Amino acid sequence: MTAPFSEVRADASRVVGRIQAALNFSVAVALQTALNTVLSAGEQLAVLVLLCVLVQEAAKLTRLDSLRSVLVVQVGQTLQGLLVYKNWASGSTLELAQGFLINTLGLCVPSVLELLSPQFMQSEYVQSALSVWLYQYATATREVLMRVDFGVSSAVVCLLAFALAAGAQRVAGSDLGGDGGLARLYKYVVRAWHMLLVNWLLRTLTLSIKEAPTALQIAMLAMVIIVVDALALESFSMLRDVRGYTVFRIAGELQGLGVLSSDRTSALAAALVAFCAHTGLGRLGSRVTTIAAEVFFVASANVFVQSVQNGAEAGAQQVLRAGLVCVLTYALQAVLNNQTEHVPRAPG
Known about the structure:
Layout: H1 2-18, H2 20-36, H3 41-58, H4 65-83, H5 93-105, H6 108-116, H7 118-121, H8 124-147, H9 154-172, H10 181-185, H11 187-208, H12 214-234, H13 240-256, H14 264-281, H15 287-309, H16 315-339
């Protein structure tokens, strides 16, 4: 019984590991929304930095890894909110351009910090915060690109941009964002733009087929993630960063179509069924079953955090509730990672 149970835990660790950034982004948005009801962005940053210092000192006496992860991620979220030009997405063309530029230049901040303190930036807490930062950028910037008239289909522009990025990667002989001076400065910009292009392409696709039958829409969304998954694993390593974000976006689109339940119990049950089916198939499992398990896991997390955002409690109570969800999410990830560290991994 021990070996099968260990393999189940290992499989759960692999599934959660692939969608870790998506889960962190979901809960971070919920906590940010709750914090916005009680504190301004500047006040949030001051409070979060103070809490980070206190937790750092308290960690000398007891382990507070999950709480530290939550605080570091939220510091990044709040800092990005301060850098972003307010109301730029709904302003004039000039405001649109200014906001896009400022938001994009904000992606250079982690690179500058990395040049100043590489060890600090390599911390797992900081890397988790950076992943959430990139997700937030892609989400905030997508609607801006949807407003720009390129004279041709947005899908054509997206595919051309991917082709250019792939060509640049081949010419460079290594991943974009390597160890060169300028490349290091803009590497997070490159990663974020890959996410943005996938997000933009997906948005263009959903708008073009919104009048189609639901079955066709589901098939098209499934095709997108299967193609991204295949390319990320076999051809373009630059797409590995956006795979989890694609799963996150498609889970949201399917929930919008009413395909996935908005009830917490039903959503959790569906995620467990998908995971059991994926694990039960073992070596017979395919990319389709893997993707299905991940999509249902992300959708289930979305349902839980949306219930936090839609709660009727006062601001302080919402903050505590959202914070608890964040801590529990990070704690679950830590438990899975620790318990499966030495478990042999089967093909997944």
